[in-house]
Amino acid sequence: MKKLLYASPFPPKKSGISDYSETMVYGLKKYFDVTLLTDDYRLSNEKLYEDFDVKVYGRDKIDFNRFDSILYNAGNCAAFHKYIYDCALKHPGFIILHDLVLYYLTLEYYRDRTDYYSKIREIAGPETFFELKLELRKGKELLHCGPDIAVKAPLNKELLLNSKGVIVHSQYSKDKLLTEHSSLKVLKIGHPSFSFRTADLKGDHLKNTFGIDDSAFVIASFGAIHATRHNDIVCRAVKRMNSESKSKIYYVMVGTGDFADGYLDSHIIKTGYVPQDLYDDILSRCDIVVGLRYPSMGETSGSLIRALSAGKPSVVTDDAWFSELPDDSVIKMDMNASEDDIYEKLRYFAVNRGQLKNISDSASRYINGRPGLDEECKKIRDLLTLRL
Fold it and tell me: Do 203 and 165 belong to one domain?
């Protein structure tokens, strides 16, 4: 059996890619002798140590030449992926590209080097680097620039052109990559679905912890609380609905970030990070999930895949990967949707809860009809063994 080195964050690292990889390595285990490559921390799932050889980058002695293939998971968070960037440059392999934009990862990787700006100019190209210089002239630190700048300067060129091939999860990402780098070998696979059995969950965490009645309409969002997720707009919409009606609506933000803290009240709640069992319990209880995302970093949303796996009606931005979801399986909002548009959409479904069942049924059909983990892992095997 061919030997595969699989580099990725894993739980307890608070990343969707951690959960993704914990699923993927068991699918790949059927086709490869898999060794895990991590940063220096203890994996929370002890079974991974029983089922795989686990190496720590920078601590353990690793003979990279003994592996037939190396598969790197690349995301835009330096805290999780900085060691992967370093290793991938030194030992080229295949990249699972979870975010098209690697702006923050690349900046963080080079920021303490004397050739910081020259390397960023080399990766960005002169025209894009000029845009970054304009930000510098405004007194901004590049790492503190917003997503609009990151999208203009994805800074993914070095990692991609140093790879043997790239795996993405959307046609949007594949098309963007091939437009920029026509020589890349790019494979599109589906993001694995999650096993989700509502019958196994009590769905009472919100009731016991926050006093949310079983009959209350609950809107929820999952993941980082950030401007690109438009949590603030949802907060204002919910406050507006609650000012107009005696039947109060709850908005529960499951994740970390202080972006929307100014809106918190008895009906707008932030849970912070929660373990998977509580995450699923909250998901089973909510009536509708809001997964707005703009501008897109070219990511595929694991939290939304989990929501669809649970058959939850979900509101998404009609852009990038989200546009590829079937129209009847999600509730799509235009990328330029106003606050009034989002308010009207949420208000409509809060009043007409019965309309959500058809969307829920379609979401379940879509998820159940997608290729399974084994089929997607076969595609990876074929790419890594040069059968594609």
Answer: no
Count each helix (H run) and each strand (E run) in the chain, helices first.
Answer: 17, 13
**In sequence order, what are the residues at sequence separation of 6 or more whose Cβ sits closer than 8 angstroms to the Cβ of residue 187?**
165, 166, 167, 168, 379, 380, 383, 388
* Residue ranges of E strands in 198-313: 217-222, 249-254, 268-270, 288-291
Structure tokens, 325: 């979801």
Q: What is the CATH number of the domain that holds 30?
A: 3.40.50.2000
Could you give the strand order of the β-sheet that contains 249-254, starting from the edge strand earlier in sequence?
Answer: 268-270, 249-254, 217-222, 288-291, 314-317, 331-333
Taking only the tens place, the pLDDT of each residue in 131-161 is 999 999 999 999 999 999 999 999 999 999 9
pLDDT digit string, tens, across residues 297-315: 999 999 999 999 999 999 9
Q: Is residue 8 in some structural domain?
A: yes
Selection from 166, 152, 165, 7 nearest residue 82 by Cα = 7
Tokens describing residue 211: 């006093």
Residue 9 CA to residue 72 CA, distance in Å, equals 10
